[in-house]
Amino acid sequence: MTEKLIETTRELNREQHIEEVAQIMSIRARGAVPMACVRTYGCQQNVADGEKIKGQLEQMGFSFTEDEEEADLILFNTCAVREHAEDRVFGNVGALKNIKHRNPSLLIAVCGCMMEQEHVAEKMKKSFPFVNLVFGTHVIHKLPELLFRTLTDGRRVFERGDDSEDKTIIEGLPIRRDGSFKAWVTVMYGCNNFCTYCIVPYVRGRERSRKPEAILEEVRSLVSAGYRDITLLGQNVNSYGKELTPAISFAELLRQLDEIEGDFQLRFMTSHPKDATRELIDTIAQSRHISHHVHLPFQSGSNRVLKAMNRSYTREKYLDLVAYAKEKIPDLSLTSDIIVGFPGETYEEFCETVSLIKEVEFTSLYTFIYSPRVGTRAAEMPDPIPYEEKSHWLRELLAVQEEIAEKRCSVMVGTVQSVLAEERSPKTGLLAGRSGGNIMVEFAGGDELIGQFCQVRVTAARIWLLNGELV
Ligand code: SF4
Question: Which of 2, 94, 299, 453 has its CA 20 to 30 A from that of 154?
């Protein structure tokens, strides 16, 4: 019986898998609409993957719920990058055991970066026998087939990408976007950089860029559907297009996207300082739609630490690019990621990071105390500084940044900012949105403004927040 079903699987195409799953799930849900509860953890790339997963589930007839008790399918889309992510996912999956006990026909699936790590997938296999389906980031497009096999093989299904697999980008997957005016557009997948602390190249593979025509088409259709804030995503967007034939630079892609007519703004993340160019800065400076905010993670202000991180740029090169960018784009807002307490980092080297922060004057920072990721080179490096001391360093750094942020916000009082109203603040009841420089602004206004760009005069500044009034 099983063999026959496996053979059937091979013969079915994608549309047939979608139809078959829809029929089986409708029977299992006794004619009602089957419900899926999808929980996505981690970065924007994972959120974008989650939207593709939901798009495919919708094609298979699923509706969505936040209530695990009423779900026919619970799917966890995991992240390997964030600290303690593994423990949290294992804890959350473990907690489903009781629900599965009460509802034996419940399907449980776990996917995402974490499942591309062998030791995690193995643990999932051995310790959580009630999980029906485990798959990695490279096979998201195969979800209809994987669900069909789960429902018909009578066995648990495990599928991860491996080096032999064709990693061609699959275009045209349906996307169920979480927002109605903000959208993520992935422009490239993977990373070639192997920063010594980072797990991404191991779980997302090498760099692969989407064709510019596909990206242009997606952005055009988003703009005509009324999306206002479009963020281009990639682990290192600045190396976009290098492996395409013909090759194209990220700056050129931005120039082409900037020609699209409409009321929208473009953002992008994440940039790598070694690949960010003056051409990119010139393109932003001359553009109509590109936000004057660049997230340019420098990670450490010490050249020795940067080398140990395998970041391939120096403090001097970073500062040189920043000086050029500030000259060309006077209202530029810069943000960065910082790792405090990298293995072997001394207090003096940490002070070089603080001095760089003072010199650049970032709008905001995403700060992390170093924590090891299994399988990375940094995880093997001696790390003598205790966590408590690193926490002390971090507090010192945050105090410096707080002063800078306060100063940067206070000089904006009196200026008029273009703000995309996103929601009503639950605390103050005011409209809240981000300025082009990515600073939160609150102001009074009606609900009809949500999803629109508003001209707002800044009337007061707090550390991370501006208050304003409609012009
Ligand atoms: S550039 Fe470095 S930190 Fe960023 S995803 Fe690649 S390896 Fe990780």
Answer: 94
Q: Ligand 1 mean position to 218 CA, how many Å?
A: 26
Give the position, in ligand 1's atom list, of the atom nearest the Cα of 270: 4
Element (H, E) at 69: none
Among residues 59, 86, 64, which one has the least CA distance to residue 74? 64
The CATH superfamily of 416-470 is: Nucleic acid-binding proteins (2.40.50.140)
Binding pocket residue ranges, ligand 1, CB within 6 Å: 191, 193-195, 198, 200-201, 235-236, 272
Q: Which two tokens stand for residue 195?
A: 């920063």
Taking domain 179-291, whether its CATH number is 3.30.750.210 is answered by yes
DSSP letter string over 141-175? GGHHHHHHHHHHSSS-EEE---TTS--PPPP----
Q: Are 76 and 110 in contact (CB under 8 A)?
A: yes
Other residues' Cβ atoms within 10 Å of the Cβ of residue 135? 26
Task: Provide the pairing of β-strand 35-40 with 73-78.
Answer: parallel
The confidence band for 162, taking pLDDT boundaries of 50, 70 and 90, is: low
Residue 5 confidence (pLDDT) = 43
pLDDT of residue 81: 77
Q: What is the pLDDT of residues 179-217, one digit of tens each?
A: 999 999 999 999 999 999 999 999 888 999 999 999 999
Among 45-49, 203-207, 304-308, name the most confident range. 304-308
CA 59 from chain centre, in angstroms, equals: 24
CA distance 356 to 11: 59
CATH number of the 2-159 domain: 3.40.50.12160
The domain spans of the chain are 2-159, 179-291, 416-470
What's the rounded Cα separation, in Å, for the pair 198 and 235?
Answer: 11
| Coil, helix or strand at residue 244 | coil
